[in-house]
Design goal:
The protein has 293 residues and is α/β, with parallel strands linked by helices. Helices cover 47% and strands 23% of the residues. Strands 3, 4, 5, 6, 7, 8, 9, 10 and 11 form a nine-stranded mixed beta sheet that branches. Strands 1-2 form a two-stranded antiparallel sheet. α1 packs across α2 and α1 packs across α4. Belongs to the LysR transcriptional regulatory family.
Amino acid sequence: MNINWLRTFIMAAESENFRKTAEKLYMAQPTVTAHIKQLERDIGTQFFSRSGRNIILTEAGRRFLPHARLILSSYDRGTHDLLAWEQGYKRKLTIAISPLLAASILPYIIRQFMERHMDVEVIVQIKESMEISEMIEKGEADLGLLQMKPVQGSLQVEKIKEDDVICVCSHDGGDLESSPPIDIHDLFENQTLFTYNHPEYWDDLLNAIHVKYHKVRTMVVTQVHITKKFIEEGLGFSFLPKIALNRELIEGRLLEVRTPELKLPKASTYIVTRADTEENRLFQDFLGEYFSY
């Protein structure tokens, strides 16, 4: 049995179409057909039946699919482990991290950690905060960095950082030194407020905003990097953690707006683990030095 036959079989079972399978695996469609026929010949049964342009798993195909996934998963893990060992890695640390942190502090942190611990293979998975706590609970990642305190009581949670949240809008193209300060009242009256780009502080912040400003047009944009792009294009404004805005503020692409009538929240960063392993302790100790918590 060829491992590529299994890979093709699994993709064909998921896409239910040989043409789509060929596109996803970057191979010619006749090659897909050949892989399936060779696998069927090797096993001695038929895995697919045709339904117009699509294909449908037979009963034999449905029974074999979970076993094929297990075989392929074991093969991929084994080859990855061997390659890691050949590169000098003796240990592995899988970190799940939210998109905002991945785009701001992660590159520097990972580089510094890997320079200090060259025998630790670091695997990074970018996930939303709610998904991260579920991954840690299921053992799919060793450690999580997220911006929402997990609800799972079985996890070990520690707040490691708090960042200022500030109001930002687009640069209007004028001279910053000679232009008058941007009026927050004008933004609320004439522009769209992008909300819920951070998982923790928006409900309380919106309540405070509605007390002070009665006319507020809002739009939910759940990703910080998309929110920043929208603001740069002049589509509206938002309240974002300052840690995610350093480059845009320095380059003048976004402008900070004073909000004297609003008490702005803090954006928290949490570290989440399930088990106290040596690799987790290494990374937590490193973060403790980095953030001085």
